[in-house]
Amino acid sequence: MLTIYLIALGFGGTLLLASMLLGGQDASADHGDGGEVHTEAAEGGEAIWTVARSVRFWTFLFAFGGAVGAVLTGLDAAGTVATAVIAGLAGVAAGTVATTVMRAVSGAASSMVEAAELTGVSGVVVVAIERGQLGKVRVEAKGRAVDLLAATDDAAALPTGTEILVIGGGDDGRVQVTRAPTD
Fold first, then answer.
1. Taken in order 149, 154, 160, 163, is the CA torsion positive or negative?
2. Cβ atoms within 10 Å, residue 113
3. I want to staple 129 with a disulfide (CB 3.0 to 4.6 A). Which of 45, 76, 94, 135 is the partner?
4. Which candidate, 27, 33, 85, places its Cα nearest to that of 57?
């Protein structure tokens, strides 16, 4: 069994080291099932399946499960079955914690801009907006220019180049704007 633990440690350790050196990301994030799915899954009971789809989970499972199994085998601290169970549980725990923590951290540090976060931000109209119709505005948020669909309740149209103020945002990504007050 020591050979199996050492192979698992070598495989997981190599992936972990490569990830740290090359700045790798969780593979599940590359397939369009980013933070929203993980958040919903955690609330809905599918969290373990979402975590288990992560390359990060398997990397930590192999690295830490293999390490614990190799140490327990080397110390002859427990029987073969007990060592396998403890190593497996340690690997699953390490993988789950690492994946959950990294998703929480990357979600908190997201550069994604939500429409609701933009209330009070000023910008400029890039596609004219008339009452009851959509246009487009550009605002500065999180250090970058963001173009958003926008609507207005202003009686007068907001032509291209008009300074605006975001007064609200919807779940659909649209923002509600009004002409920016002049001094």
1. negative
2. 17
3. 135
4. 27
Instruction: Render 90-147 in DSSP notation, one character per residue.
Output: HHHHHHHHHHHHHHHHHHHT-----GGGGTT-EEEEEE-B-TTS-EEEEEEETTEEEE
The burial of 6, by beta-carbon neighbours within 10 Å (0-12 exposed, 13-18 middle, 19 or more buried), is given as middle
Residues 6+ apart with CB under 8 A from 94: 60, 61, 63, 64, 65
DSSP state of 158: B
Q: How far apart are CA 73 and CA 1, in angstroms?
A: 8
The series of mean pLDDT values per 10 residues for the chain, 183 residues long, is 92 87 56 37 49 81 93 92 94 89 68 71 93 91 84 92 89 85 78
